[in-house]
């Protein structure tokens, strides 16, 4: 076996180990601490019927609540970070991410439209509604940005306008059509919340994230080619329009599915790609998997914090990501300025 | 391998930029495109590179329409160096050149030693080997432009298109860069601003004005005082050397018309 392959395998194993450790901690830490070995035995029982005798309540908490939740958190972190990388590279904009560009807001509106208004007459599922909302929002923002001059600032301002518009639409729909209980639930969900997550959510989040990662990796060299802009990418043999459609589509799909499961979570897509660039550099062959891993681990940790930071209360995870992400982003911005 | 444009027209934002442009690039030549600002040089370059689609006419590469070919296929045969393409990414000089291998690599084709060798050679050609590890934003304009050329060379094209490659460079770098391009065993089309550089390095020159080709041919035929006056609005004398070359001496707008015999005296 040649050296690059061995190295790749070693890095892959290390990444997997880090991810497993994070999931393990995610399942063990909580309001009731559960010993690490009980978590491991639960996983062994459920995954290959190891038959360890365990407290049924402990086993239930670990398997039904915490592990499913940790896996979805990991998928969510990875998917949002990947979306952030893709949008930042395609738009050549360090401030781009699904939240800033209004894609998350559009996904929320789409999801609420399906749940509350019954749009799509039962044919359209919640994630599909979110996906349509996400695409609509991106279309709106892209159009607005193009009309206002395509610059870095124009895209972000268009994103701000798009976010505000779609958030207002969501609030309007909720206030007008939902009953009090629905409204409270939705407002809590909108802030980003993993409380209701169970295994069926995993079977949606995991494949979408895996497909998203694969499609992004498939386009890693194409994303590299955008380093000097779209014309440069075209002259390097990239069919720019196709790359845009596929990659924006995948980013919108990942964002929409995550929003439909856990609500709209900010700063992950924005900050994690920058953090990953500091570790592995700008080439997408490394940046994409690194961002996915760091995003996954970050989200699992953020979820743990959201459960233990206020005893007896669960903080919306979006609050944690913003509390960590905003200062981190400020730091990144000021560092970029110093080096540029 | 031949590249030719047939009756190209192109407009952007409702403004017509090129009309009825036809030209044939001869294998192995260095063809200079000159003309005032806004005469359509950049648009012509991007149509020739196939990154824009003409609204009328077509560009043929070895007899095939560029738009019938896959983008990747075109990029293996034609490389384009744009005017001052920039990035805010923390990319190294070498990584910028490595991008040139993109059209030769599939999505999961591993990077090979051969790719490394091609990149090494390209860096050597532009004398940037010593700076290969430097970050893009720490490099000067001349160094960045040389890297763009190296990226294009790493693409291993048969035809190299350069859009005002010497903009913002000092005279040493301007001459150095054109000499470098001239040395390559490639067919080159370069949009140039400096008429003397065009005269010095080009086998043929196409003079553009208001989206049309005004004249095309060897520098000494295309560059006449009358044309320079009518296209650029500048009074100039053409000084010819014995070897068929020429250079242009611009006259200060305040000075009176030249004395008869001035040109003969200068040559």
Task: Walk me through the structure.
The complex is a heterodimer of chains A (340) and B (267). Chain A is mainly alpha-helical and 340 residues long. Chain A has helices spanning 3-28, 36-48, 56-91, 103-115, 126-147, 152-177, 180-190, 199-218, 220-225, 230-235, 240-262, 268-280, 284-308, 317-339. Chain A contains 14 helices and no strands. With 267 residues, chain B is α/β, with parallel strands linked by helices. Chain B has two domains: 3-223, 3-Layer(aba) Sandwich (Rossmann fold), CATH 3.40.50; 224-267, no CATH class. Chain B has ten helices and twelve strands. Chain B is globular and about 65 Å long. The relative contact order of chain B is 0.15. Classes of the chains: A mainly alpha (340), B alpha/beta (267). The interface between A and B is medium-sized, with 29 and 34 residues.
Question: Which tags fit this structure?
Answer:
heterodimer, A: 340 residues, mainly alpha, 14 helices, B: 267 residues, alpha/beta, Rossmann fold, 2 domains, 6-stranded mixed sheet, 4-stranded antiparallel sheet, 26% strand, transmembrane (chain A), transport (chain A), ABC_transptr_permease_BtuC (chain A), membrane (chain A), ABC_BtuC-like (chain A)
Please outline what is shown here.
The complex is a heterodimer of chains A (340) and B (267). Chain A is an all-alpha fold.
Draw up the topology in text:
The complex is a heterodimer of chains A (340) and B (267).
Chain A: H1 3-28, H2 36-48, H3 56-91, H4 103-115, H5 126-147, H6 152-177, H7 180-190, H8 199-218, H9 220-225, H10 230-235, H11 240-262, H12 268-280, H13 284-308, H14 317-339
Chain B: E1 3-12, E2 15-25, E3 30-34, H1 41-49, E4 56-61, E5 64-65, H2 71-77, E6 78-81, H3 93-98, H4 113-125, H5 141-154, E7 159-163, H6 171-183, E8 187-191, H7 195-201, E9 204-209, E10 212-217, H8 219-222, H9 225-232, E11 236-240, E12 246-250, H10 262-266
Parallel strand pairs in B: 3-8, 3-9, 6-7, 7-8
Antiparallel strand pairs in B: 1-2, 1-4, 4-5, 9-10, 11-12
Helix pairs in contact in B: 4-5
């Amino acid at each position: 076996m040649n050296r690059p392959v061995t190295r790749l395998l070693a890095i892959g194993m290390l990444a997997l180990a880090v991810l497993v450790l994070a999931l393990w901690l995610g399942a063990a830490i909580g309001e009731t601490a559960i010993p690490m070995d009980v978590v491991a035995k639960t996983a062994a029982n459920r995954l290959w019927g190891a038959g360890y005798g365990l407290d049924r309540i402990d086993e239930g908490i670990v398997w039904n609540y915490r592990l499913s939740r940790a896996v979805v958190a990991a998928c969510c972190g990875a998917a949002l970070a990947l979306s952030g990388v893709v949008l930042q590279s395609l738009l050549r904009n360090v401030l781009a991410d699904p939240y800033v560009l209004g894609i998350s807001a559009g996904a929320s509106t789409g999801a609420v439209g399906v749940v509350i208004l019954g749009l799509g007459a039962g044919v359209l599922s919640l994630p599909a509604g979110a996906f349509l909302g996400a695409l609509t929002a991106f279309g709106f923002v892209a159009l607005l940005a193009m009309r206002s001059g395509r610059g870095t600032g124009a895209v972000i301002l268009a994103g701000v306008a798009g976010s505000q518009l779609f958030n207002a639409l969501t609030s309007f729909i909720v206030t007008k059509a939902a009953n009090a209980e629905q409204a409270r639930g939705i407002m809590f969900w909108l802030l980003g919340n993993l409380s209701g997550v169970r295994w069926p959510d995993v079977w949606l989040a995991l494949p979408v994230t895996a497909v998203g990662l694969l499609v992004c990796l498939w386009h890693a060299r194409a994303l590299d080619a955008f380093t000097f802009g779209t014309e440069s990418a075209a002259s390097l043999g990239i069919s720019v329009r196709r790359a845009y459609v596929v990659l924006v589509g995948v980013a919108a799909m990942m964002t929409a599915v995550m929003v439909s499961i856990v609500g709209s979570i900010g700063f992950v897509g924005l900050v994690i790609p920058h953090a990953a660039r500091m570790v592995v550099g700008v080439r997408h062959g490394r940046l994409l998997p690194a961002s996915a891993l760091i995003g996954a681990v970050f989200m699992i940790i953020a979820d743990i914090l959201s459960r233990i930071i206020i005893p007896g209360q669960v903080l919306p995870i979006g609050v944690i990501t913003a509390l960590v992400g905003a200062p981190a982003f400020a730091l990144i911005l000021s560092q970029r300025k110093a080096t540029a | 391998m031949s590249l030719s444009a047939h009756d190209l027209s192109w407009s952007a934002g409702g403004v017509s930029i090129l009309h009825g442009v036809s030209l044939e690039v001869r294998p192995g030549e260095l063809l200079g495109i000159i003309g005032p600002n806004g005469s359509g040089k950049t648009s012509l370059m991007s149509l020739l590179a196939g990154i824009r689609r003409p609204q009328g006419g077509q560009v043929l590469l070895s007899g095939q329409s560029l738009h019938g070919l896959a983008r990747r296929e075109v990029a293996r045969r034609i490389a384009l160096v744009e005017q001052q393409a920039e990035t805010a990414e923390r990319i190294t000089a070498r990584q910028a050149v490595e991008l040139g291998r993109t059209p030769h690599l599939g999505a999961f084709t591993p990077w090979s030693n051969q790719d490394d060798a091609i990149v090494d050679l390209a860096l050597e050609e532009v004398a940037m080997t010593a700076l290969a590890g430097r970050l893009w934003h720490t490099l000067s304009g001349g160094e960045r432009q040389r890297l763009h050329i190296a990226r294009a060379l790493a693409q291993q094209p048969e035809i190299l298109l350069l859009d005002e490659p010497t903009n913002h460079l000092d005279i040493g770098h301007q001459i150095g860069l054109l000499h470098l391009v001239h040395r390559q065993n490639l067919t080159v089309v370069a949009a140039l601003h400096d008429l003397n550089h065009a005269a010095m390095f080009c086998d043929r020159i196409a003079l553009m004005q208001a989206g049309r080709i005004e004249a095309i041919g060897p520098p000494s035929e295309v560059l006449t005082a009358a044309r320079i006056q009518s296209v650029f609005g500048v009074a100039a004398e053409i000084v010819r050397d014995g070897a068929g070359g020429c250079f242009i001496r611009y006259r200060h707008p305040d000075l009176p018309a030249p004395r008869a015999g001035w040109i003969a005296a200068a040559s």
